[in-house]
Structures are given as C-alpha cells and as structure tokens.
Specification:
By secondary structure, the protein is of the alpha/beta class. Helices cover 38% and strands 13% of the residues. Strands 3-2-1-4-5-6-7-8 form an eight-stranded mixed sheet, sandwiched between helices. Strands 10-9-13-14-15 form a five-stranded parallel sheet, with helices on both faces.
C-alpha cells in the first residue's frame, strides 16, 4: 500500500520558466517547497532574492524564501519528498526529436531518492510515450514499481510568458496518470493550488494534448504567414481581412502574421510529434510544411526590407537599419528562438548597418557579433535610421511615435495597421 513521505511537500527539478512559477504557487498554497537545479548561478541568485525570468519578480522570490522555499544544487533535497515535479528543458536533438538528456538525468536523480508513496510528475514537453517508456524504467531501477509503490504522472506545462491574465493558478491543469490511482494522486496535488484540474485518460493522452495545442498554433500561424506573402503581391491588406473575419462569432479564431515564430513551444514542440509520427514510417506533412513556411519568414522579411529601400532609391548595403524588438514576443525579455536573429543575420549578410532598440534587452548579439544598442531614446533612434523594422510588438512601440519619427518603417507586427502612412509598410 502506498504511504506518504516525511520530507518537504514538493521538490521541483528545473527552476526556469516552468518550474519557478510552479514553486511560487505551491508556496502561496502553504506547501513546503524545495527546488533542485544544476546551474549554480540560478541557485545563488534565488537564494539572494533575485529572479532570472520575466514572470516571477524579485519581491515574489523574497516571499517564496520567507515561506520556506529552499533552492539547492544538492540532490539530497529529494530525501523524504512527498511529490517531485520534473520541469527540465527538452531541446531538439540532431534527429529532430526531443533531446531527453535532462529528463533522463532528472529521472535518474529521483530514482536514487525514490521512496514508497512518492508522486513523480513529468512536466517537460516531449513525445507521447516518454513518461511510460523512458521515465518509468529509470525510476524503477530503484526497485520500486510504478503505480504500485509510487505514483507516476505527466502534466503538460501551459506557461505563457508575459501573460498578465493567465498563470499557473487559473489555467486548467491537465494530468495523465500511469494508473487511475496515479491520476488521482496528481489531481489531488495540483488541486491544492490550481483552480481546475482536468484528468486525461492516461500519460500518452496528456503528452499528446500539449503537442496538439502547439501544433494547432504552429499550422495556423504558417497559414497566415503564407497568406501575407501572396496578399502583398495581390495588393490585399491581410491585416484588415483578418480583422473582418474575426467579427464572425463562431468557427474562426484570428491568427496574425509575423517575422517568424519564437519561444520554446511553437517552433520546437510540433517537431516532437513529427518525430514520433516519422517513427511509424510516414511523414507528418502538416507540421513539416508549417515548419518550412515559418522558417522562411525571416528571409522574406529581409527581402521585403530590401525592396522597400529600393523603392525609396536606397540600397540595403550600407543603409542604417534599426530593429525594433529582439525578443520573441511582446513586453518580455525572453529571446528564446526569436525570429529577430535570423532576420538580423540575413540583413547583415546583405550589408545593412544594423542597430537595435528593445526596452527589455540591454545587449544583443547575432552569432557572437554584438549588434549596437541604439539607446533608450526611441524617437532619436527612429529618426537616425534609414529603415526601422518592427519585429516585436512591445507596448512602447505606439503607432503615433513610429509613424511620426521613422523616415521609413516596415511593420511586421501590425502595430501601425490602424494608422497608415506613406512611409509605412505592413508585412
């Protein structure tokens, strides 16, 4: 019979964009929480009350520490834990699937401290079957049987960095257990600090749900990105067409084009599903086509910039090009997989004199080469540029300022779509 442990209520392995918000909510619910991370700088920073992610403030770190949160580099924090949640990265492997090195390492660490009654949950995004086929065997090297002597579940993270409305507490939490008892244990755990818990049929269904969510966004973004290319040729304002279509109260969700896709989820996660499908002997054509379309958008943005300058009688080579926003989404500092880098890379190869402005980023480089920061004065930066390109739709980039001070503006995010000017071109 399963029995409870006597240590902390929760240990979170991986104190990044997923793990740290989870720690915060668990602490707020009164749970005794420890965190395990292999990055000494991260652990030292947290102990000093510093935050390394956008969604958790230093003040919140202090509150977590006051509530008893213990960040650590030592795996003995796992001793006696009632619940362990694994939130480690799963980047792409050279084969195109998830690199499970960190997941395997975390599972191996847990196995050395696994006790009867412990609940182990994997939150790292991966392909269906990982929890049962990869994590379970590693944990069972402890001599304990999953579903009989300890609980095992998968619960996909649903973190949206910078979202002011939805966080861990009010975003429905999916849990899939190895057994019905495992699912009940995971649901009971998350129910302590999440408003709604949704039980999937099993671990594979929970793993699939995460990939379905992100693949849905991936292919729809690709759809409007491809439309942006041919609508420009046809002289159609796609932004206006999308706004019109969005007035339909059923059967349509608005997606808008951009310079590419960024963050960990959209450009990375659908590849996990494609990788799994390819293992069955056939391609996942929707995902692969979406990847092709979205991957070529930075090159298209650079080509459009070149054509725009040509139209004004300027060559791109030697032109002062200001990149506005180098993060992957609005109003955060997160640069993971930002399309700004491939855009800058292409422009630099074509001879552009690059600089950047971003209220959330002090220094920025592309392939090890520093790109000059244009300074905090947005108006002066705009006026000094031959061409400004909006790559991230930060709130600081209001339409009036952009249209008034940029001699020539290429807006890939639609910031100025309701304030057209002769010197502005939309993607």
């Amino acid at each position: 019979m399963l029995k409870g442990a006597t240590g902390v209520d929760l240990v979170v392995i991986g104190l990044g964009y997923v793990g740290l918000p989870l720690v915060r909510e668990a602490c707020r619910a009164g749970l005794r929480v420890a965190g395990l991370d292999r990055d000494a700088r991260v652990v030292a920073g947290l102990k000093a009350g510093l935050s390394h992610i956008d969604d958790v403030s230093p003040a919140e770190i202090e509150e977590m520490l006051e509530a008893g949160f213990v960040p650590s580099l030592q795996e003995d924090v796992l001793d006696g834990a009632r619940t362990v949640v694994i939130c480690v990265p799963t980047p792409l492997s050279p084969e195109g699937g998830p690199d499970l090195t960190a997941v395997r390492g975390a599972a191996d660490t847990v196995s050395r401290h696994l006790e009867p009654g412990m609940l182990v949950v994997l939150e790292s995004t991966t392909y269906p079957g990982t929890t049962e086929e990869v994590v379970r065997p590693i944990l069972e090297t402890s001599g304990l049987a999953a579903g009989e002597e300890f609980h095992l579940a998968f619960s996909p993270e649903r973190i949206d960095p910078g979202n002011p409305v939805y966080g861990v507490r009010n975003t429905p939490k999916i849990v899939g257990g190895l057994t019905a008892a495992c699912a009940s244990a995971a649901a009971a755990f998350y129910g302590k600090f999440v408003e709604q818990v949704v039980q999937a049929k099993g671990t594979r269904e929970a793993e699939m749900a995460k990939l379905l969510e992100n693949t849905y966004r991936h292919v729809n973004i690709a759809l409007v990105n491809e439309m942006a290319v041919f609508c420009n040729e046809l002289g159609i304002d796609l932004w206006d067409a999308i706004d019109c279509a969005a007035t339909k109260p059923f059967g349509f969700q608005a997606f808008r084009p951009g310079p590419g896709v960024g963050g960990h989820c959209i450009p990375i996660d659908p590849n996990y599903l494609s990788y799994k499908v390819r293992s069955l002997g056939y391609p996942f054509r929707f995902v692969e086509l979406a990847q092709e379309i979205n991957d070529r958008m930075p090159r298209y943005v650079a080509e459009r910039a070149q054509l725009l300058l040509n139209r004004e009688g300027r060559a791109l080579k030697g032109a002062k090009v200001l990149l506005l926003g180098v993060t992957y989404k609005a109003d955060i500092a997160d640069q993971r997989e930002s399309p700004a880098r491939p855009v800058a890379r292409r422009l630099a190869r074509l001879g552009a004199d690059l600089s950047f402005h971003d209220p959330f980023v002090e220094s920025w480089d592309v392939d090890g080469t520093a790109v000059p920061n244009a300074g905090e004065d947005l108006r002066a930066a705009l006026e000094a540029a031959d061409l400004a390109i909006v790559l991230a739709d930060h709130a600081a980039y209001d339409a009036a300022t952009l249209t008034r001070h940029a001699p020539l503006l290429f807006d890939t995010r639609g910031r100025t779509r309701n304030a057209p000017a002769d010197t502005v071109e939309l993607l």
